[in-house]
Amino acid sequence: MSFQAFSADKSTKSPEQQLRNEIINLLDNPDIKISNNEVKANIEFTLNSKNEIVILTVNSETESLEDFVKYKLNYKKVNSKMPETNSKIFRMSLKVLNPNV
After folding, report:
1. Judging by DSSP bridges, how do beta strands 90-97 and 53-60 pair with one another?
2. Predicted local distance difference test score (pLDDT) of residue 5
């Protein structure tokens, strides 16, 4: 099973790009069963004062993908050096591809 995560700006190694890369590593090797060619999710999160990801919403037609994202990301500490976020809400799209189709 493979997945793709998208964010708006991929051209530089900004703090947001570094955060995106850390999230991709945390979501590596999804162990979920999907029957379609792919499933998608839209993720909204913020970072708390301990530099932990706090999941706000995960929207997907597949509940197992929502559960997987929450389990793998919620309250996981990241090393990315983000400037003061002031409760900034980050948005990320995720696509999981079914290798068996």
Report:
1. unpaired
2. 56
Q: Which residue has the tokens 């994202």?
A: 69
* φ/ψ (deg, to 5) at 2: -125, 165
Q: What distance lies between CA 74 and its chain's CA centroid? A: 10
- For the segment 47-54, the average pLDDT, to the nearest whole number, is 92
Q: At 37, which amino acid appears?
A: N
* DSSP secondary structure string for all residues of 21-74: HHHHHHT-S-----SSSEEEEEEEEEE-TTSBEEEEEEEES-HHHHHHHHHHHT
- 63-73 and 15-26 helices, crossing angle to 10°: 110
Calpha distance 92→87 (Å, rounded): 16
CA-wise closest residue to 62 among 27, 90, 38:
38
Query: What is the pLDDT, as a whole number, of residue 1?
Result: 46
